[in-house]
Amino acid sequence: MTENTEKRAAWIWYPGDYEAWLFCKCMAQRRERDVLITPFWRMDSHYVSVKFYCNFTLEEPDEITVKVDGDFNIFIEGMGYVKNFDGKLRLPAGSYEMQILVTNVPELPCVYVCGEQLKSGSDTFRVTCQDHVFLPAAQGDFFDIDASPNKRVKKTRELAPVSTEQIGSGTLYDFGKEISAYLELRGMKAGAKCKIYYGESREEALDTEHSEQTDCVFSCGEESAATAVTKAFRWAYVPQADAFKELIALEEVFETENKGRFSSSDKLLEKIYDVSVYTLGMCKKEFFLDGAKRDRWAWSGDAYQSYLVNYYTFCDSDAVKRTIRALKGKEPIKTHINHIMDYTMYWVLSLFDYYLFTGDKEFLAEMFDGAEGYVKFLLSRTNADGFLHGYPEDWVFIDWAAIDNRGETSFEQILFAVTLIRFAFICEELGKDGSFYAKKSEELLKRTLEVFWVDGRFVHRRENGVLDLAVTRYANMFAVLFDLLDEEKRNSVIEKVMLNDDVQKITTPYMQFYEQATLAKIGMHENVLSGMKAYWGGMLGEGATTFWEAYDPSETGAEKYAMYNRPYGKSLCHAWGANPVYLIFNCLLGIRPREVGYKTFLCEPQLNVLPDFDCAAPVGKGTLYLKYDGKIFTARAEKCSGYVKIPDGFVPEAETGGRTAKFGQKDGKYFLDEAEKITFVKREGEYVF
């Protein structure tokens, strides 16, 4: 085992069980006025009995420390069960087969093994959940023998309110922006009982009858007492101001930093970027959650967009994988992810994008069986026409909007066609035959056009063979965004839907994201910039410090906070509100993987639309730096390489990075090597290459 002498011992467990166990804990954090609200979909937890197996050779005697979370026994072939175990195995040189059987009902069964020659890790141990199938053990960043996954502790930092206001007998605390934190009341009187009313808005905190989140803190003979669960809020109102001396927030800290940046003389655009990053950071905890205040759950469709923004900000692949694994659940597959038809498909699409941005084929292979299982599940739910339709237990979501989704919707068929073709790509990347799924996608799209294409656009739905001729944006813009239409049909959708103000408008950042991305796809970048500033800028105009779940500019006063028939039901810090980061970096700056895993990047900046800017974009393991002052545009690569398109109206300088740049005259792009810099200047008069 000499190959293991340099590596660190790690806590190990059954693959997927850490995510499943942690997911159950995190999804149980939702409260509504101190009432526990649990997910309404099937929650799969860890296997409570797991066997760890290792076949190893010691070249010399070794003393091996074994630590286990759970009840356990150790069996060594030829020696039997280890008795009177004191935490260490003292073994002479030789070859061994060892099994550690662990049972742990409330927590994750996990093992830590450390000797000079044998150290626990995914390459040394296999595990089984007693189904006679052995898999490589899973591990994470848990290398401390005294800090197993079950002993993880949230990190916090103290944060004082920026202002206080006496209202009646109580105090209103303002922390300046939305935070996720515990509250600690210091200097409490003996026997004191303090009620806390939280608010994402001032109105919510002061409405003690309807505020969504509350707490009650009791003094138990100590001078300080803290809330048990973190809450997301900006304001907190405590009516019993005389029951304690000081209120402090203990803000959650997750150690990830934004690897990108964006600044501009257009301060509204810059603020939209900054607030978007902060919004995603508020919702990126152990998993990518939807809203910081209300649900605090991982929803597949919400998370899909969060992943895309993450690739331009935190680049936290571990959080992406944790969320994907947790949402996958365990076999058998009997229902849609989150019980939502569209969210099952977004889960499959998330694998495609994760692979595109990271090139992590190992994770793609790990998830393949689950992905194929869900695709086959989707196919099993189609009718004689090959269409998906809602079963009684299904939720056909699409968007928060006044639309009828009964029967067969064109949107679900378009999304399924995209899912099938992208799953076919996943198959091919893993050396499997994806032609069956590619053909299914082709057949589905053909049939969707036959049934739902009316007067040059997709109508919304059909029920019992009868078409509802209502038109929505969803299927139409997705068909354009994912290149499913020929030029004639594409142009028809643009004219009759995308540019038609009579078609129902979108009022959620969730679908605004796809609409703006589609506008960028068809070259309407001016509309993307103006639309982003109007919609997300409108929320900032309402005093938002994070972006909302939904925003309708026509709503005024307290109604803008209402949703779900509750006066403060709307989430004012919602992960899908962070989408402008993607729209800026992907759609306006045109930065995206040209090859899987950012082997090379592509940058197609829309300088005819953008104001001046200075930014850095994470590109794989490197960074692309871009700067524009209205006349000169520069691009510099660090630990990455790729192609930069010559912006319209600009010409390249002769020398870049100390040598003549390689100019591809056929496609108008420069190839930018690592550590090189390209400068373009605004053209004056005619320029001939």
- Uncertain segments of ≥5 residues (pLDDT<50)? 1-5, 655-666, 685-689
In which range does the helix fraction lie?
A: 25-40%
User: What's the total number of strands?
Assistant: 39
Query: What is the overall silhouette?
Result: globular
Count of spatially separate domains:
5
Helix/strand structural class: alpha+beta
Mean pLDDT: 94
Distance between the termini: 63 Å
Sheet having the most strands? 8 strands, antiparallel
Taken as a percent bin, the fraction of beta residues is: 25-35%
The DSSP helix count reads 14
Rg value: 28 Å
Assembly state of the chains shown = single chain
Task: Provide structural commentary.
With 689 residues, the chain is of the alpha+beta class. It folds into 5 domains: 2-151, Sandwich (Jelly Rolls); 155-253, Galactose-binding domain-like (Jelly Rolls, Sandwich); 257-339 and 506-580, no CATH class; 341-396 and 402-502, Glycosyltransferase, CATH 1.50.10.10; 589-682, Maltose phosphorylase, domain 3. Helices cover 28% and strands 26% of the residues. The protein has 14 helices and 39 strands. Strands 14, 15, 16, 17, 18, 19, 20 and 21 form an 8-stranded antiparallel beta sheet that branches. A hairpin with a 2-residue loop joins strand 15 and strand 16. Helix 8 packs antiparallel against helix 9 (435-452) and helix 10 crosses helix 12. The longest helix has 20 residues, at 361-380. It is globular and about 80 Å long. Mean pLDDT is 94; it is low at 1-5, 655-666 and 685-689.
